[in-house]
Design a protein that fits this description.
alpha+beta; Dna Ligase, domain 1; 12 helices; globular
Length: about 425
């Protein structure tokens, strides 16, 4: 098979690495890709939002299967464009990708179908939002309705902060048109857990759990980012939590989308909060998480392409999804200053070590090839992932490997997976 992957981040590198392991695949293309993906795939200079060019390329090269990694093209309707051209593509159609594309839609869906989530109100007028805040309890959460690179969520600890947040999202348009509508949500406390799943429109298969670290600095301080590191599985995702979620959240979401005439095929990412009242949905994504994909995919025993084909062909029920009985931790190496402003173009050294060690992975996110050298080209530069027999060993291995890659302005959090230390032996 010839496979095309659309995207350019660490998630797409993890997808490409999994595709490369499939005996079904003999050629991988990635548009636009990055320097790391270029070592296992042929990178094509077409942007992820250039749907017609991508479809034309897929037809011209007789691509057998296309995987859409990113949220923007999915929400924009790339799957519909590919399907109209008779091309086989993995991901939700536009009318299903709205599950991530509009937080107001997903909250209304959960309310309608009794899927547990935080109480909320939606607004398209900043004055009404401000009036509502006068009556609301703090802390409170403000969310830009649309896509905002994983950064459109503000947790406000006081009324003043919340008012400033409304101005930021709805008036100053910090997140662009994503802030035309806004969701104001009650603040939930508990452990966050990420659960990825494969879906074929009716059947859902759950992957191993993970936990992301969104804040830029140690101790969950600093600004929200696309993710500074993650671990899998989450020890807080117990058998009881799993049973509850399967009964009241996972299948219920798939059934709700089908009932709305929006059958979902692809990946549903469930962002969960384990509250005292039980698990509740924080958010949905319509694709693999980044960096969750970097710890979940390396632990999957199945041929990823086989599973994805089963989703597209509506026969996911035939698949027995299996994961290794181990753990993985990913530490993101970023450019100092991310997520605000940072320099790029620094040479990255020490990457050859990753080819020599089993169970260690270096997933490229913001990298480029310049004059034959791999250089930094983004805020999140590399995702250093390592496996171990348990989470503590995987964490130690990941931090050891994080020292192998060297570049100027390198920055990382030093407490990824620190929650693991709280668990009793």
């Amino acid at each position: 098979m010839k496979v095309l992957i659309v995207g350019s981040g660490g998630r797409e590198h993890a997808i490409a690495a999994s595709a490369a392991k499939s005996p079904k695949v003999d050629k991988i293309y990635c548009a636009p890709g990055n320097a790391g993906i270029g070592q296992i795939a042929e990178c094509v200079p077409i942007g992820a939002m250039e749907f017609d060019k991508l479809a034309a390329f897929a037809k011209e090269r007789q691509i057998d299967f296309t995987i859409i990694g990113m949220d923007d093209p999915l929400v924009g309707g790339i799957v519909d464009v590919f399907e109209a051209e008779g091309l086989k593509v993995f991901g939700p159609r536009k009318n299903a990708a709205i599950l991530e594309g509009s937080k107001a839609f997903s909250k209304d869906l959960m309310k309608k179908y009794n899927i547990p989530t935080a109480g909320y109100e939606t607004f398209d007028d900043p004055k009404k939002a401000l009036a509502y805040l006068e009556t609301a309890k703090t802390p409170i959460v403000l969310k830009a309705d649309g896509l905002a690179l994983g950064k459109g969520v503000l947790i406000c600890n006081s009324l003043e902060e919340a008012k400033a947040g409304v101005k930021e999202i709805m008036e100053d348009k910090k997140f662009g048109s994503a802030g035309n509508h806004m969701v104001v949500e009650e603040f939930m406390t508990g452990r966050e857990v990420s659960v990825l799943s494969f879906v074929d429109g009716k059947t859902i298969k759950i992957m191993s759990s993970a936990q992301d670290h969104k804040r830029a600095k140690d101790g969950d301080q600093g600004l929200n980012t696309g993710g500074m590191g993650t671990f899998s599985p989450s020890p807080f995702y117990t058998k009881e939590v799993d049973e509850f979620c399967r009964k009241y959240i996972y299948q219920a979401t798939v059934d709700a989308m089908a009932a709305e005439g929006r059958p979902f095929t692809g990946i549903i990412f469930f962002g969960l909060m384990l509250t005292e009242e039980g698990p509740k949905v924080l958010e949905y994504n319509a694709r693999f998480g980044d960096p969750e994909a970097q710890v979940v995919l390396p632990r999957m025993k199945n041929d990823m392409i086989e599973v994805m084909e089963a989703c597209v062909e509506g026969r996911l029920s035939e698949i027995d999804l299996q994961f290794e009985e181990n753990a993985a931790v990913c530490v993101v190496l970023a450019s100092d200053g991310y997520p605000v402003s940072y320099e790029k173009g620094f040479e990255i050294k020490g990457l050859e070590k990753f080819n020599q060690e089993e169970g260690y992975y270096c997933f490229h996110a913001g990298t480029a090839l310049k004059d034959g050298k791999i250089v930094t080209n983004g805020g999140r530069v590399l995702g250093i992932t390592a496996k171990g027999k348990d989470l503590k060993e995987a964490r130690a291995n990941a931090y050891k490997a994080a020292e192998w890659a060297e570049f100027d302005n390198k920055y990382m959090r030093n407490d990824i997976g620190k929650a693991i230390d709280e668990i009793k032996e």
